[in-house]
Amino acid sequence: MSWLRALKETALSGLKVERKRLEPLIAVRGAAGLALVVGAALTLFGPAVAVSSAFGAFQSAIATFQRSWRPRPVLALLSGATLAVSTFLGYLTGTHIALFMALLALWTFLGGLLWAVGPTAGIMAASNIAIMLVTVTLPTSVAAAAGHAAMIAVGGVVQALLVVLFPVRRWGAQRDALADALAAEADYARRLREDPTASFDPAPLMHARSAAAVTPRQARRRPAELHGTRGVAERIRPVLASLADPAVGVPAEGPARDRVRELLHAAGTVLDAAARAVRHGEAVLVPPEATAALRTPDTGALLSGPPRRAALRLTALLDEVVGTARGAGAAESDHRTRHGLVRLVPGALRAMRDELRPDSPVLRHAVRSSAVVAAGYLLGTALPLGHGYWAPLTAVMVMRPDFSQTYGRSVARFAGTLVGVGVATAVVQTARPGTYVSAGIAVLCAFGMYLVMRTGYAVASVFISAYVVFLLGTGGEDWAQTVPQRVLLTFLGGLLAMLAYALYPAWETPRLHHRLADWLLAHGRYAAAVLDRYADPADGQDTAGSPGSADVRGALLDSRDARIAWRDALTKAKHEPVRSRVLSRSTAEDAGRALAQAGRVVMLIEAHLPEYAGGQGAAPVPAAAALAEVLRNAVEEGAEAVRENRVPDWGPVHEVVDRWGTKETSDAVLRGGAVQLLAALDDLADAMAARRGDDGPRTHDGPRTHEGPAAR
Predict the structure, then answer these.
(1) Which among 381, 359, 348 has a CA at the least distance from the CA of 110?
(2) What are phi and psi of 214, to 5 degrees?
(3) Which backbone phi and psi does 645 adopt, to 5 degrees?
(4) Which contiguous run of DSSP H or E holds residue 50?
(5) How far apart are CA 135 and CA 53, in angstroms?
(6) Cβ density class 534-564: b for 16+ within 10 Å, e for less
(7) 613 - beta bridge partners?
(8) Span 186-214, pLDDT tens digits
(9) Which among 248, 247, 252, 264 has a CA at the least distance from the CA of 299?
(10) What is the CA radius of gyration of the chain?
(11) 0.70 exceeded by pTM
């Protein structure tokens, strides 16, 4: 993609307004907390302290909107406390330009590294630095600085108390995550009716898994319907795929296929009903026709073998979903322990330390941010415009570790500031509001920002800019120079951020083949773990008593993480003005489809793992152990080949699979799955060979075919 096109697309993405579900009650609560703090500070201490306390309450309310599974009061308290510390340190060094610049550069660098911990930590750190740049201009002494910092912390306390006293949709985020996972599986079931090999994005399941991590105290208070449902939903997905796939299930057409379509439609209906119940905390209402379809007596007459087993297991799992969604009969506690903030500190420090390497995007972001903020502050101070902090404030708020967000947010920030400052100044010059009226309008602007902040950064920037103008006006700021100063400095800050990324980038495109290799390696380990279970069915069960071991579960989660990392990297690369010397866009898409198919096939094999209970298990399949060992070695070598821009060689895997026959394994699912898996790996090799412009090394004699036990 050319630079011109990249700039155009990122600008449009920054100005885009999305339709999102608004949360007016949460916005009212945040604005009410801000109003309480500002009103009390104005009455007791005057405008200067009110401005400081307002920023603390404002930022703490924003923290409660972040996409984090931490309790909202904890986020508010953490935001207020860290902002108070940052501001106080800024106060102490503010009168010494060299010390303040050193602190600013160090604080920004550490804030950039916090992206290694997660986006919530990175966003909160950037916001603290931005607000610190404004508030350090207010006090006149160390004692006053301590008072201002204390009031900022009080703002966080007030917002936390309001969240506790006036909760809105308790466990709402966790409910939405679980409901989205169930709804995604319902949609998957319906798509399988028309496309038996349809793909499934595991992101909703991974999102729900993250939401299931709670502290011991939260685990005791969690609603009953959030116990166990996710674990059952995890086991439904491979059963749906197994039931629909013609290679291991019923023929593509005929009475058996019609029955499968009926079952899939009923499954989608039941999962949708469970999703609605979980999302709203209501009773599960399953339409009678869906229940009747799942229990039609002719299932046994139309289906046999693996399809029949899958149909029976699907019915049992759907009954379990309905039962757990009703808060009764949960077979498992279904929660992962989430450590407290103090216990997370060592892990956070390790994550930040691990990013201290030259090729780290997070390190590059930290270096860029600290350099740009320092340069912006110096330029803003040197220019005869006043309000010099607006340039570094803009830069630190728009900069992100990836190209598209940095450039898109820069454009959005400038456009929003232009509108917000312009409208605010027009209102001031027309109405000439006093101190209390200005504070009231600032609170209204904050409410608007809370309400629309998830619809787009450009819209939110309008309210943020107006909020800052009115709030600083509360402290007696001169209105006359508001528009030209702040618009020009905002433009300067955004321009510095964009220029810094161009000069010191962290492109995702050149690393795509490494992401692809990671995904291949994760899928290979997942496949080998499943094959090991066929070789030794007595290896164990998961916590729910279903077939599978801890190794299989861990490998599955690793493969999902690798797939999501690949998808995110590919999305970022599509907007970057650079090209990969290893993977073109078409090659990347073809390779991604091949690996997605490989993962789907392994999931099908896993769905038919031999059950083992009470010492009476299925017979081991020695051939599976041989294939697992060969596959591990071949995948490791194949991943290395992808990293080095070579075509993977699957010859050893072909040799093992070609030797398979009914004497070695009579399991049709395992034989058919192995053929399908090998076909997907061959598709990956073909994609890499096409990029090189040659046929690559041949992994087997003769033309490749997908025919065989798993013929489509």
Answers:
(1) 348
(2) -135, 160
(3) 60, 40
(4) helix 47-63
(5) 10
(6) bbbbebebbebebbbbebbbebbbbbbebbb
(7) 616
(8) 999 999 999 988 888 888 988 888 888 87
(9) 264
(10) 29
(11) yes
How much is the pLDDT for 691? 63
Give the C-alpha separation, 63 to 71, whole Å.
11
58 and 442 Cβ atoms separated by less than 8 Å:
no
> Distance between CA atoms of 48 and 588, rounded to whole angstroms?
56
DSSP 317: H
Q: Is the dihedral of CA 136, 142, 145, 150 positive or negative?
A: positive
Chain Cα centroid distance, residue 352: 19
Per residue in 383-408, is it b (16+ CB within 10 Å) or e — as a string? eebbbbbbbbbbbbbbbbbbbbbbbb
Question: Would you say 57 and 38 are in contact if contact means Cβ atoms under 8 Å apart?
Answer: yes
Return the structure tokens found at 84. 């108070």
**Under a CB-based contact definition with an 8 Å cutoff, are residues 638 and 661 in contact?**
no
Residue 285 and residue 277 in contact, taking contact as beta carbons nearer than 8 Å: yes
| CA 600 – CA 442 distance, rounded (Å) | 53
- Tokens 């904890």 sit on residue: 74
Alpha carbons 577 and 566: distance in angstroms, whole number: 19
Q: What is the largest CA-CA distance in the chain?
A: 91
Reported as type and span, the H/E element at residue 134 is helix 119-135
| 650-699: pLDDT as tens digits | 999 998 888 876 554 446 778 888 888 999 999 999 998 886 554 444 44
Please list the residues that pair with 547 across neighbouring strands: 541
Residue 630 C-alpha from the chain's centroid: 34
Q: Looking at residues 68-82, what average pLDDT do you find? A: 89
- CA angle 152–153–155, rounded 5-degree value: 65
Cα(283)–Cα(288) distance, rounded to whole angstroms?
15
Q: Which residue has 């949709």 as its token pair?
A: 169
Residues pairing with 337 in the sheet: 214
Tokens of 133: 């740049």
